[in-house]
Structure formats: C-alpha cells, structure tokens
C-alpha cells in the first residue's frame, strides 16, 4: 500500500490502535465508554417508542416511520460522543486480526468486554429511564411492548438473518462517517442508513440490550413471550448474526479488498 495512502482503512487502523491503547492503559475508561453507548441507545429507543405511540394515535400507520427516524439518532449520539459500540467493534476487531494489529485473543477480550459493558449499561440506563414520568402507566398495547413481543416471536433463523443484515447496515453507516468530511453529511447519512434496519425491524443486539430491559421495567415485569430463555436466545443469535454481517461480510471482506499493491482502494 502507498505510504501516502490516507483512505478508509488508514483511519480504521488508527481507530483500532486507539481502542487497543485505551483498553491496555485504562480498561475502566474503555468500560465506561461501552456503557455510554447503551445509555445513548436507550435514550434513542425511549424517544423513538414514545413518539411512535403518539404518531400512531394521530395518523394510524405512521408509528413505525416515526420510530425508525427517531431511533436513528442513537448512532449519531454514539459516534459523536466517542462511545464504544459492540457491533461496530465486531468490524474493528475482525479487521484488527486480519491486518495483524490485534492478536485473536486480544481482539476477543476487547470485543467481549465491550459487549458485556454495553449490556450492563443498557440494563442500568433502561431502569433509570423507566422511572421517568413518561414511562409510568403505559398501556399494555403500547408500541414498545408490541415491538418486543414481535421480536420474541421470531424464529432462530429469522433472528440470525436479520442480525446479519442489521450489522451490515450499521457498519456501512460507520464507513460513511469515516469517509465524509462534512458533519451535516455524516449526520444525514447515519439517519437514513440506520432508518433501513430500524424500519425493517432487523435484530441488533446492542439495541436489544436497551429495548428489552426498558420494556421489562416499564411493563412492571415480563411482557408476553418474555422469558430468560427467549431473551438469551435473541441476544445470542442476534450477536452471532451481527458478527457475520459486520465482522465478516463488511469488516473482513473490505479489509481483504483493500490489501495489496493496487490502486483500487477505498
């Protein structure tokens, strides 16, 4: 690769080195950044489901559009606040191993740490948000509860497949933010790209780390169909699908496409 090359993977490699250095120097700071990711995801989910419910009442059929648009702001907050998102780190970890910037063991430790503290942050943030006045006494047919019931009713193959597509979309959005120089362009691209997976109802494990606990706390217990087994199955299969989509299809494929001495580089 040309020593003067400063394209997409120049910045991805810099990000990998930055994540590795932070984890090695101050793991607690890395953990806090991971928890912040699901704080922002929980806030995005909260405003999305509340506006969706209001939109559906005003104009039947509009709730899903409102939800998808408002939820998209979650990634904007996560990117601009430099939080550590497990699903984008599936891409970074895979690229890091492929380019020998990370050992397989180090990549797994960083990735699983990120996912664990994303989960902890999601549970804590969801509980606190559920205490706010707007989440008191929600009707049992609220958009939030209906959405979670639908997620829990999906087959294992559906969850895995939708997880794959969800993280393809998320990491396309991440790639766009790296390549764009203008902040307005970055924000617009993130909103419209994330809208795709939110509107199609694809499965994103970090989003579900926020939405499942929020539904549980706001409902006052398990919503219909919510058991420990059903939640664990969703999270596991969504995470595996997310890894295939973001880690392998986007991360590994584009890392390979951008290796070697050729001029067709992203």
List the helices and strands and how they pair.
Elements: H1 8-25, H2 27-58, H3 63-71, H4 73-80, H5 86-98, H6 104-130, H7 143-152, H8 156-179, H9 183-200, H10 205-219, H11 228-257
Helix pairs in contact: 1-2, 1-5, 2-3, 2-4, 2-6, 2-10, 3-9, 5-6, 5-11, 6-10, 8-9, 8-11, 10-11
Describe this structure in words.
The protein is mainly alpha-helical. 77% of the residues lie in helices and 0% in strands. The chain has helices at residues 8-25, 27-58, 63-71, 73-80, 86-98, 104-130, 143-152, 156-179, 183-200, 205-219, 228-257. The longest helix has 32 residues, at 27-58. The radius of gyration is 18 Å and the shape is globular.
Portion of residues in helices?
over 70%
Which stretches are low in confidence, meaning pLDDT under 50 for 5 or more residues running?
Answer: none
What is the radius of gyration computed over CA atoms, rounded to a whole number of angstroms? 18 Å
What is the beta-strand fraction? under 5%
Series of H and E elements = HHHHHHHHHHH
Query: Termini distance?
Result: 12 Å
Biggest sheet, in brief?
A: none
How many β-strands, per DSSP? Answer: 0
Overall morphology: globular
Taking all residues together, what is the mean pLDDT? 96
| SS-based class | mainly alpha
Count of helical stretches? 11
Kindly list the characteristics that best describe this protein.
266 residues, mainly alpha, 11 helices, 77% helix
State the gist of this model.
77% of the residues lie in helices and 0% in strands. By secondary structure, the protein is an all-alpha fold. The model has no long low-confidence stretch (mean pLDDT 96).
